[in-house]
Automatic annotation (TrEMBL):
Origin: domain of life: Bacteria
Annotated InterPro entries: Bacilysin_H2HPP_isomerase (IPR052535), Cupin_2 (IPR013096), KdgF (IPR025499), RmlC-like_jellyroll (IPR014710), RmlC_Cupin_sf (IPR011051)
Transmembrane segments: none
Matching PANTHER family: H2HPP ISOMERASE
A Pfam family matched in the record: Cupin_2
Gene3D superfamilies: Jelly Rolls
Species assigned in the record: Aliishimia ponticola
Domain Cupin type-2 intervals: 29-86
SUPFAM superfamilies (UniProt xref): RmlC-like cupins
Entry protein name: Cupin domain-containing protein
Amino acid sequence: MTNFPRVDADEGVTRQVLADHATMMMVSFQFQEGASGKLHSHPHVQSTYVKSGAFRFTMGEKQFDVGAGDSFIIPSGVTHGCVCLAPGELIDCFTPRRDDFL
């Protein structure tokens, strides 16, 4: 059970920390169709699980589409972002945790 609030992360995107530990964090991102996760990078290793919806991801120089049930890893320092093609939810795990989300 989470005690963290759902917050606006960007236009059409909300974020909620689901679980938190010094070495790992699980976060839910809910997207409206057309919303984007802007290109960015961070020192954390990130795993992403597509709980629902459809997304077009950019990771480094590659682009790929994912849908419900897909998962992948984003290595530390790699520039990445996404566009939501159909409303959905991403579950991201970060190691170490994203202190900037607390």
